[in-house]
Amino acid sequence: MLHPHPAIPGEAYQPTAFAGEIVPFRVTAFREGHDLIGVTLRLRDPGGTESLHRLVPRGDGLDSWSTEVALLVQGLWTFRFEAYADTFAAWHHAAEVKIAAGVDTPLMRESGALLFDRAAAESDRPAAERRLLRARAAVLRDPDVGDAAALEVVADPVVAAAFAARPVQELTTLGTDLPLRVERERAGVGAWYEFFPRSEGARRLKDGRVKSGTFRTAAGRLPAVAGMGFDVLYLPPIHPIGVTNRKGPNNTLVAAESDPGSPWAIGAEAGGHDAVHPDLGTLADFRAFVRAARAEGLEVALDLALQASPDHPWVREHPEWFTTLPDGTIAYAENPPKKYQDIYPINFDNDPEGIRAEVLRIVRHWIAQGVRIFRVDNPHTKPLQFWEWLIATVVRTDPDVVFLAEAFTRPAPMRALAKAGFAQSYSYFTWRNTKAELEEFLTEAATETADYLRPNLFVNTPDILTEYLQFGGRPAYRIRAAIAATGAPSYGVYAGYELYENVARPGSEENIDNEKYEYKLRDWDGAEAAGDSLAPFLRRLNEIRRAHPALRQLRDLSVHWSDDDAILVYSKHVPAALSPDGRADTVIVVANLDPHSVRETTVHLDTRVWGAAPGDRFEVEELLTGARWTWGEHNYVRLDAFAEPVHILHVKEPG
Do 222 and 52 contact (CB within 8 A), yes or no? Predict the structure, then answer.
């Protein structure tokens, strides 16, 4: 047997899944000659319970076999493929041909009777099944039974099901026991929302200065975030902010005394990575905020940014943790053309053990405050071995902890970070806007990298306001949110997206008056009351995600076709046997990627993806509007970017 999956080819890392994920298991298996074989998957869950699953040929002519299993329990699973000579399949194929042709009929009938006798003697078969097989053997041996009646035994689906469930095996080949690490559901499924707590509840004073929001005032925003249907609330760094080289509005080098500075310039007289900014409150206030979020059904994710402002205690206590230049100054961070004079990057070369111990202490400190999710800032600028060690060490004692990589980097390091243990990763989705780009991206995420890399499809960030959003108007915001929410089980939104904030700082790809450097005073309720908010649309998207298990899977996406290069079509399907409610779920997404026009075209569906035969007609419900239509393989669509740029269609089951 060759090429077992799930796997990370050529790597020592373990493939991963999340609890509830439907995982495809595949292997290449064959034998000499023409005799038929069978392949079984032997799964052992974290508690040691074994289950057997029959694989079926994929029909690709490459001797590839597959099955799908929903893995419901978190922990370390093991799996093994077992191939064998399938005695029943070999007899069935020969008997079906020979008895019908009148060739070797007595031999075929007696061979089948002997096989049925052998199976009926197996003590692990149900008594009713054993009686059935003995009765069928008697029919095959009865000289008064004609060949036509014998063929009915050959074709009996009950007999076939009995041998499929408990095949008679010979010449069994056992594969190697392989690991599969299953993480908790939130490692793979979740709608994320990001806000700066200092902006929530901030207010302008009479002298024009802004008084910072606090954890207590930010808690007032939690019901609205939960009400939009989000699962995770991600907070940028909440630590004291340095004064030296503090950035002013729009990343200027001169800051007024009242400018709050960038939260990523971590560390000041009030403390470092284990402290909270005094303007936000105390550690007790933070714990209360986490409890309040949990009461609303939200999990708090905290930013883990391994860097320091010039005022961080580390600079004074551990200067060896930074890079000293020939002129005696410490090197600040750069990501050309961006410069971060208010941030010193960590140099892991001089004292790797000391840095490891300190970061582990910090992570465990925040775990003790109730944090179970960490969004890691720029992990690709730190040693890969460090992350592999840190994540393994943390999850050994706290297996529920999830790490998200903000790895906007090249494919190789992005994938390497996922293999090293990051449960999720930011991705190139933000910049994939054309039909061809999105088809390639979504297909790769659902297939090629799904055994180890789970993308979180953030539509925007404080650093990223793409040209598509800058110039696409309000339709662009609806289009991108709909694709993100349906294209993968995890996606994210940074606050302000629902207010269509689309003005960029000239010459950059980030918002003007960026919230990284100042407070943002927003009227959320007023905008929604005036109809100027995307919040109702986001709320509906998240309702649809929760109602449809197909949208909570990563590997079930299939791309379809349209006659228009601006119309993207894909479906997601969960079969009834693997669905949590026992009902099949199929969702079709048709998106107009041109935010400036009305598009009319024909979409073409491979209905076999969800078990409908070519030519079948079926009913679909438009989940955004409630409209219903009868569809088939080929369907006319009209998508108005200014009214309804996206269809999200549920295929209704017959009856």
Answer: no
Q: Has this prediction a pTM greater than 0.85?
A: yes
DSSP state of 382: S
The angle subtended at Cα 494 by Cα 211 and Cα 412, nearest 5°, is 130
- For residue 131, the tally of other CB atoms under 10 A from its CB is 12
Q: Is 142 a catalytic residue?
A: no
| Contact assessment for residue 347 and residue 381, using Cβ atoms and an 8 Å cutoff | no
Beta bridge mates, 644: 640
Which ranges constitute the DSSP H helices of 496-608? 524-529, 535-547
CA atoms within 13 A on the CB side of 121: 8
CA dist 523 and 496 (Å) reads 10
Q: Which two tokens stand for residue 641?
A: 């970017």
Is the pLDDT reported for residue 153 higher than 70?
yes
* Cα 369 from Cα 390, distance rounded (Å): 19
Q: Are 616 and 632 in contact (CB under 8 A)?
A: yes
Instruction: Name the pairing type of β-strands 50-54 and 37-44.
Output: antiparallel
Look at residues 596, 598, 599, 616 and name the one whose alpha carbon lies nearest to residue 607. Answer: 616
- Catalytic residue of the set 231, 303, 406, 463: 406
Residue given tokens 């999710």 in the structure block:
373
* 409: nearest Cα among 430, 382, 385, 378: 378
Helices (H), 71-123: 87-101, 105-120
Tokens of 84: 């064998």
Tell me if the bond preceding 536 is cis, omega within 30° of 0: no
**Active-site residue, selected from the candidate residues 299, 358, 377, 594:** 377
- The pair of structure tokens assigned to 489 is 């089980």
SS3 270: coil
Residues in the chain: 655
Longest dimension (CA), the chain: 106
Is the model's pLDDT at 151 over the cut of 70?
yes
Contact 555, 447 (CB under 8 A): yes
Take residue 492 and report the two structure tokens written for it: 């994210």
Q: What would the mean pLDDT of 29-46 be, rounded to a whole number?
A: 93
Six-digit token string for 412: 């190789």
Looking at residue 655, what is its pLDDT? 55
∠ CA(149), CA(150), CA(156), 5° rounding?
90
Paired strand residues for 183: 18
Do the beta carbons of residue 541 and residue 229 sit within 8 Å? Answer: yes
Please state, rounded to an integer, the average pLDDT across all residues of the chain. 96
What is the average pLDDT across 593-620?
97
Strand partners, 230: none
Asked if 299 is an active-site residue, the reply is: no
Residue 527, phi then psi, degrees to nearest 5 = -65, -40
Q: What is the CA radius of gyration of the chain?
A: 30
Does residue 654 have a cis bond before it (omega within 30 degrees)? no
Exposure string of 186-205, with b = 16+ CB inside 10 Å and e = fewer, is: bbbbbbbbbbbbbbbbbeee
